[in-house]
Amino acid sequence: MTIRPSRTVPQEVVAAGTGTTRQVLIGPDEAPHFALRKFIMQPGGGMPLHTNTVEHEQYVLRGRARVVIGEEVAEVKKDDVVFIPAGVPHSYAVVGDEPFEFLCVVPNLPDETRLVEPPEEEKPSMEETPA
Q1: Which of 6, 50, 84, 89 could form a disulfide with 56 if both were Cys (CB 3.0 to 4.6 A apart)?
Q2: Structural domain tally of the chain?
Q3: Sign of the alpha-carbon dihedral angle for 121, 124, 125, 127
Q4: Could you tell me if residue 128 is inside a domain?
Q5: pLDDT for 15-49, tens place per residue?
Q6: Is residue 2 included in any domain, yes or no?
Q7: Is 116 inside any structural domain?
Q8: pTM to 2 decimal places
Q9: 69: pLDDT strictly greater than 50
């Protein structure tokens, strides 16, 4: 049995994100089938469009974010639940001045995160790119 205050679990910076940290609250060394993680995204923060090789089940603890999942865009808030299928591009952008926090359950399987290039129409043109 594992019981501990979540505040004692170290936070690690998510390199691909902006103002984003992650805690592995229950990892594969403690649970054979699923990992429980907590993500915290500061105001102005988020994660760029990316894919994972495992599905995500999420529960929003506080704050709001614009979430892109495949072709769908939604604003999520406290007490919302989110399902992201494996392999589907998704991103997060914090909305407002409160941190966005959520729990994320993933299977304990090999996972690869890959950044996804935005479509051509969303890329800045050469004239818009700062020198």
Answers
A1: 84
A2: 1
A3: positive
A4: no
A5: 999 999 999 999 999 999 999 999 999 999 999 99
A6: no
A7: no
A8: 0.87
A9: yes
